Amino acid sequence: MTINIQFSKLFTIILFLFEALLFAQKVPPPPPKPPKHNTTGKNDTGSLRMYGEESVKTFPAFTIPLSASEDERSVYFHQTVEEKLVKLDSTITPEQIISFTKFKISKNQIDPRLLDSLANKAYKQIEEQKYPDAIATAKILLAKSPNNITGHKEISLAYKKTGDEKLSSLHFAMLTKILKAVFKYGDGTAYFPFLVNNFFEGISIYEAAFRCKPNKITLIADKKGRLLGAYNGYSSAMDQILIRYSDLTHWKSQLKKGDYTEE
Question: 25 and 61 in contact (C-beta within 8 Å)?
Fold first, then answer.
């Protein structure tokens, strides 16, 4: 219990520091692009894995049925949740955010490769200080993926740089909501990988929650049939090397063997 409380407090402190530092410091150089799969050798993949680790805590099972996302009377109805995301509604709940992701996955409405491309583009435009262009790109990304961590993170910074404090704050608040929802149901270990839309969101989680960039990234198909995005980076805020995973199983059917490393 003490470990769980400390982890929760540390996560809150890191989010606070991120809010204070994001707009005060120079934008970090762009992270490596999502891997052109099969570029990481077997030894590197091995160094990314932490299957022997113990999870920090036990996470609640997500019990909202997919049928609720198709029930117009339900608060989890996908159109209702999408409207809240688009309107940057602060009353949105973690369960609504996660249910929306699961619904999109179940309907095969997520194109991770396209989302990664848009995320990379927005990130690069921020680095090049092309803030209006970054806003335009992030809007396209968020239109396709309204609960996208990268989309809200980059557009928040771009609005800040162009002097629109209100929209910057609203997107940052939504970013924080989404991060808290993701962390409520997983810590990114192999046991409880982050539920995300696309690979690049894992990179954005590192930057937003851990204040670092992963220096090793890859895709792994594990023995359970899951496709995991794997990330490795040192966090000075937490003073440790972090190895975390995102669940990208919904992408696996769009890939072929050789696009990822098999366990």
Answer: no
